[in-house]
Amino acid sequence: MIAQSFQYESPRTIKEAIELLQKYGDDAKILSGGHSLIPMMKLRFASPEYIIDINRIPGLSYIKEEGGMLKIGALTREAEIEHSDLLKKHFPIFGDVTKLIADPQVRNMGTIGGNLAHGDAANDHPAVMLALNATVIAAGPDGERAIPIDEFFFGFYQTALQPDEILTEIQIPVSQHGTGSAYHKLERKVGDYATAGVAVHLTLDKNNTCTSIGIGLTNVNPTPLRAARSEQALFGKELTEEAIAEAAKYASEDCSPSSDLRGSEEYKRAMVAVLVKRMIHKAAERAKA
Amino acid sequence: MIQCKTSKAISGMGHSMKRKEDARFLQGKGHYVDDIKLPGMLYMDIVRSPYAYAKIKSINSEEAMKVPGVVAVVTGRDLEKYNLHWMPTLMSDTQMVLPTDTVMYQAQEVCAVIATSRYAARDGREAVRVEYEPMKPVIDPYKAMDANAPVLRSDKEGKKDNHIWNWKVGNKEKTDKVFDTAEVVVKQHMHIPRIHVASIETCGCVADYDKVNNHLTMYMTTQAPHAIRTVIALVAGHVGLTEEKVRVVSPDIGGGFGGKVPVYPGYVIAIAVSFLVGKPVKWIEDRSENLQADSFARDYHITVEMAGTKAGKIQATRFKVLADHGYTDASANPSKFNTGLFSIATGSYDYDTSYMEADAVYTNKPPGGVAYRCSFRVTEAVHAIERITDRFAFEIGKDPAQLRMDNFIKKEDFPWKSPTGWIYDSGDYHAGLKKAMEAIGYDELRKEQAEKRKKGELMGIGISTFTEIVGAGPSKDFDILGIKMFDSAEIRVHPTGKAIARFGTKSQGQGHETTYAQIIAEELGIPAENIQIEEGDTDTAPYGLGTYASRSTPTAGAAASIAARKLRDKARKIAAYLLEVSEDDLEWEPGKFSVKGAPEKSKTIQEIVFAAYTNHPQGMEAGFEATHYYDPPNLTFPSGAYICVVDIDKETGAINVRRFVAIDDCGHIINPMIVQGQVHGGLTQGIAPAMYEELIYDEDGNILNGTFMDYLVPTAVESPHWETGHVVTPSPHHPIGAKGVGESPTVGSPPAIVNAIVDALSPYGITHMDIPVTPYKVWKALKDKGAI
């Protein structure tokens, strides 16, 4: 559990950080909360020659509402998200998800930006961001660009971020009246990755018709997965038990989990169905509250 | 309620005195082996095998030697020159220190890298190139018994199979006869899986050989420093390290649980290197090495049967065990007990017929197994008997609590001889279970369960009423490598009435510095806070066999009590001299002797001790010291009645332990707070194998969960709210009536949890679940039965 030696850089501006990324290329890794990267380095699964610690760059940690958008800075710690009044008001799903991320010590350090930029389908925020239709802001040598969340996750530990880009902000449209969201994952014990996890974000009108719906799945696919067919099964329809059951069935069919120590593929598909059903109910209750 | 004979100022037995050691632990000022830094110290790291079974074709250290700071790479061939490449295990089997030809399990030590820093040692380790020729390993212990299985221990002359030993106890013919004619016979096969103690501090040492004085100081994480010193002298005496030239120091230890009893190869390599280079050598395992290579616990495959009447009378039990010891039998049992104290498996029930047989085999897995918070295979025994008792109750349709009540050994029948020959010292099993049932509201819970079942909801209630066997042990039967399993205490009271006491045991978190002080305070009336306790340094402490198997209070605690009584006898003589009365005219109350009928004439223990140094009677030896080596006349038999309530989410298989009541009988209690802490910790280490922990290997012998990411040690979040209580039946043969408590909850709780889970699933025809019972296993069982 001792990392290979590396050179440590601590830029004070995003510009400096990008310059370092341009200089070192693939030999560099960005350090934010460090709770994915450092264990990989200690096990020598990753041995970057350069570590670019972005923790000393000011102005990357915030949660604010601006122009109908909720904006979360990339360096915002999970613990800050967990306890944010603004998020509790608009998105109780953040309370659901952060409480299930690792343990309090990890949440004191781990950042939302790191959780997404790591590109790990086992992480919890990706499914939530898919459900919430988030946009990721990345800064690079040519300035900033906005990446829709559906274009962000590519493959195993791969994202749309270029080697010289840094994730700086997450934007989420502020929800309207009648909106509710919920997240849950099954885990073997606290701190474990999900056996299966499901995020649901929906809006109901006064006729109980689903006017918006987002469903994201955790750790049941090589990449974070949007349950698109499940969403279609509910969008514009009345939220009946039959419709929910159909959505649950589609999600369990469309994911592709692998058997491991957490359970068989069959079990995980079954759990996706159970969780989709439960999270839709929970989100709907919150929407009606 | 616990009655205290002493005031709070004295804090003898029964006081919940705050732990004296916690001031340093809570402030991060404990002193562990990794805190030791000596001038010129070198660091060792170990190259480990990626294969479970392979020939070593070559070890190339060229690149490693180029890493700045690396000073040596040590192989089995190097140790062979000094005949230090093999060592004995505690069970008189043999084990490689470093291999010369073949590796026998994944994560086995292959060679060691020595460097001037820990970082350089690790970089050097990564640069060593080893060429292997992998062979097909034997992983399944049943396949190891096959006639055509490859013979793994070909190093042993004439060895033709993988069988290690066969053990049996009881009356086979009589047992078979009862089974042949019994009205009811139930049978269950179960695996008590391989688990790991996973103590928070891993193993390590600093070997410091002084060439000038030919003296070795060995700082190491050991639960048995004196035994280790003797072992070092036996193994390395031929190179000059005779026993007076060896000092073993066991500093603060961050959890042992049996895993720090064995001698691991890393210790021996560190000694050898320090001996050769004349510099201190530090070796500290990292977490994965600890989990993957150090001794496992359990791994018993058990077939258990129970015979009885339809009315519910237990008549006989039969046990067949296959023990998977991995590469070598590295158990930490008393020498004469291959299966430890498994023969306690007849349980808490009054019947006279049982037969047990066990075989042990070698496989290509790490060696073991240690007694993980368990007095030598008692966890396996208790799981078997408490599961089969529930199966019997289910089979005849009787409430499992009632069945137990009907079959318990009665309070008045103690001492009671078990079918396998143990003499149970004392107990009141009926009172224990009654208390547990009242605490949890058993009858109401059964009603609630009936209602829930009508609605298809899964709720279960599980019971475990176990008898433990601890305090090894009487010298007639108990030794480790020939050394009898007594333990010792030496008390020295200073002129001002303050004391230091030293012991042959070694605390790893149990709170000895407090409990031993309280025992001495009870006997002498000196305030416990004025009694300093020391353990772990073989140069100063009296010889003893160490701390494991809940033996410290039964052995060293008894030694403390008797040594203190020797001092009280001396105090009486001095008091009689000072008060000018005869000894018979004196009466004792904690802290002073007074003249009968004239209580104003008295001498405090402090005055008496001062006189022992300043004004002792002519002809009496001056000073105030006593030592005692205690050889217990019998083992002690703590017991418990545990009841667990679970709710199961039918759709996901998730198990919620709603309630857990633990009523323990550990005899007289020394410090109730420490006992409660022990019970809480032990219960959490019981829920671990019941629901979370298992070391899993694939067919090639690769460990699949060699880190804490996948080896699931439960945390506070997974721990239910433990509800504890006591029944007290003092041990009649122990000087203070104590029995030991550390293991009871670990040993007794897994079957309570599993019995509750199986009870919840029983409407679907499920009669058994192997541990650990996970949500996935529950879901699969329900699915297989068509319940979901």
Task: Report a brief summary of the structure.
The complex is a heterodimer of chains A (289) and B (788). With 289 residues, chain A is of the alpha+beta class.
The computed structural class of chain B is alpha+beta
Oligomer, anyone?
heterodimer
The fourth-level CATH homologous superfamily of the domain at 425-472 and 636-788 in chain B is: Aldehyde oxidase/xanthine dehydrogenase, molybdopterin binding domain
Query: CATH topology of the domain at 425-472 and 636-788 in chain B, which one?
Result: Aldehyde Oxidoreductase, domain 4
Strand tally of chain A: 14
Largest sheet of chain A: 5 strands, antiparallel
The proportion of residues forming helix of chain A, as a percent range, comes to 25-40%
Description:
- The complex is a heterodimer of chains A (289) and B (788).
- In chain A, the strands form 4 sheets. Chain A has a 5-stranded antiparallel sheet. A 4-stranded antiparallel sheet of chain A has the order 11-12-13-14, with helices on both faces.
- With 289 residues, chain A is an alpha+beta fold.
- Chain A folds into 3 domains: 7-53, Uridine Diphospho-n-acetylenolpyruvylglucosamine Reductase, domain 2 (2-Layer Sandwich), CATH 3.30.43.10; 63-173, 2-Layer Sandwich (Uridine Diphospho-n-acetylenolpyruvylglucosamine Reductase, domain 3), CATH 3.30.465; 179-288, 2-Layer Sandwich (Enolase-like, domain 1), CATH 3.30.390.
- Chain A contains 11 helices and 14 strands.
- In chain A, helix 9 runs antiparallel to helix 10 (241-254).
- The longest helix of chain A is centred in the last third of the chain and has 24 residues, at 265-288.
- Chain B has 788 residues and is α+β, with helices and mostly antiparallel strands.
- Among the domains of chain B are: 22-30 and 487-630, Aldehyde Oxidoreductase, domain 4 (2-Layer Sandwich); 425-472 and 636-788, Aldehyde oxidase/xanthine dehydrogenase, molybdopterin binding domain (Aldehyde Oxidoreductase, domain 4).
- In chain B, strand 25 (499-503), helix 14 and strand 26 (531-535) form a beta-alpha-beta unit.
- In chain B, helix 14 (512-524) packs parallel to helix 15 (552-579).
- Chain B is globular and about 85 Å long.
- The mean pLDDT of chain B is 96.
- The A-B interface holds A 1-2, 4-5, 43-44, 103, 186, 188-192, 195, 261-264, 267, 270-271, 274 and B 118-119, 122-123, 126, 286-288, 651-652, 654, 692, 696, 704-705, 707, 709-710, 712-715, 717-718, 774-776, 779-780.
